[in-house]
Each structure stands twice: as C-alpha cells, then as structure tokens.
Write a structure and sequence with these properties.
Helices cover 48% and strands 15% of the residues. The chain is built from eleven helices and seven strands. It binds the ligand O=C(O)CC1=CCC(=O)O1. This is 3-oxoadipate enol-lactonase.
Length: 257
C-alpha cells in the first residue's frame, strides 16, 4: 500500500507522524501544523482508503500500522514521534506494542484499546456500501463535536462533513471492518514507550474512561483531558497543541540528556 503523505517543517528536525481518524484525511491536522512545524518535521498521511490513499480491499489494524512502517522505510526515517487520533490512535497503540523500535514516543488522542462494538462497525460498513456516505456524514457532527462547538464554529465543521460525504465508501467500510476486529485491551500492558493520552471531556465515542483505562494499563503514561468532544484537535486546538508539544519537548529533552 502506497500512502499519500505530506512532509512539512524543518529538514533534520525530529519527525512527528500524525495519523488521522476514520472518515478524515491528513488535512485534519491543519490546526496543529504551525505550532508543530516551529520545532518538528511533521509527516502527515492519508490512512488506507482515505483521501488520496487508494483502497486495496480488506484491511486489518496490523496492516494499517504496517502501511506506516513501509512509508517510514521509504522516507528513510528510522524513528519518529507518533500522534494519532481515534482510529489513528489505535494504529499508534499497535505500533507501540509491536514495533516500539520505530517510535520515540506515542500520543494517543480520543482513542481506546477497543473502539465501539464489532456489530456496530459491521453495520456501518454495510450501510455505507449499500447506501453511500450520506447517512454517516449526516450524523458525524454530533459524533465529532460538542453541541456548543457546533453552534460556535460551523465554518470549521462543514468542510470536514463535506469531505466525509464525498469520501470513498469502500475505503471507509474497510476501515470500519478493521475497527470491528481491533482489540488491544490485553496487549497494551506490555507497552514501555513514553505515552501521552489525550481525552475529550465530552467525547461520546472514546470516553474519558477509555483514556483512563489506557493510562492505568501503560506504566508511566500521562493523561490530559481537554475541553472538547471527539475531534479534540479541531475543537480545542490550543489545549491539544499545548499538551502535545509539552510532551514532545519533554521527550526530546530526555533523549538529549
Ligand atoms: O464514528 C466516528 O465517526 C468516530 C470515530 C470512531 C473511530 C474513528 O476513527 O472515528
């Protein structure tokens, strides 16, 4: 699988990889770009079947993670910091557990060791294959953003919902099926990498309790709760960026010292 990607920021700076959520693309990370590229080389990519990355039939969580490892190899990046949101967070947990030698640190935002229930994901996959993206797109704003933010910032939400409505149903369905079978609840205890968990205080999809479970399972990990719902990097970019960058700089200081 060849991932569509974009590199920004100073050449030679430490690399931070950003991994998008279900139904979004690398553009999801626009609110982080200016702050991160002041200090880091930022590698964003479109996950399998999303944005400009083609779909290739059935996919599993380990293949989503393997796609990124192939990209890192092709760019000759030996190690990188990783930050993923929701499905991208699950990808990060898999990498932290099974390919820790490729990561410097992991930030898991609005995610969980297991997201939702298999039946729900399989039903959503069937729905988008049969009916297209309209129904899923119509409910996305409620899943992604708090009511207050929906009223306050429709201009930030509408482009994301339009993008979702126009996205490839088969690519989306394949990732729903990957989520249906992804369950790392019994694996994450073995993670030893520095880990930051970011949870949204109003997130109905991956809850604060999901974030607390991650923090309890991974020794030495940190949890930050931000005032947002599911796509917290969009709804609370300042709080998100502050937490992420403070964590990344603390890890860089550790490696330097
Ligand atoms: O259901 C949604 O759209 C939210 C979500 C769950 C996993 C993911 O990546 O996004």
């Amino acid at each position: 699988m060849t991932l569509h990607y974009q590199l920004d920021g100073p050449e030679g700076a430490p690399v931070v990889v950003l991994s998008n959520s279900l139904g979004t693309t690398l553009s999801l990370w626009e609110p982080q770009l200016a702050a991160l590229t002041a200090r880091f080389r930022v590698l964003r990519y479109d996950t399998h079947g999303h944005g400009q990355t083609a779909k290739k039939g059935r996919v599993t969580l380990s293949q989503l993670a393997g796609d990124l490892l192939t990209l890192l190899d092709s760019l000759n990046i030996k190690k990188a910091h990783f930050c993923g949101i929701s499905m991208g967070g699950l990808t990060g947990l898999w990498l932290a557990r099974f390919a820790p030698h490729r990561l410097l640190s992991v930030t898991i935002a609005n995610s969980a060791a297991k997201i939702g229930e298999p039946a729900g994901w399989l039903d959503r996959a069937r729905s988008v294959r049969e009916e297209g993206m309209t129904t899923v797109a119509a409910g996305a704003a409620q899943r992604w953003f708090s009511e207050a933010f929906r009223h306050r910032s429709p201009q930030l939400i509408e482009p994301l919902i339009d993008q979702l409505a126009r996205s490839d149903a088969e690519g989306y369905a394949a990732c729903c099926e990957a989520l249906a079978e992804a369950d790392l609840r019994h694996e994450i205890k073995a993670i030893t990498l520095p880990l930051l968990v970011i949870a949204g205080e109003q997130d109905p999809v991956t809850t604060v309790a999901d974030g607390e479970f991650l923090q309890q399972q991974v020794a030495g990990s940190q949890l930050t709760i931000v005032p947002a719902s599911h796509l917290s990097n969009v709804e609370a970019p300042q709080a998100f960026n502050d937490a992420l960058i403070a964590f990344l700089l603390s890890q860089e200081a550790r490696y330097a010292g």
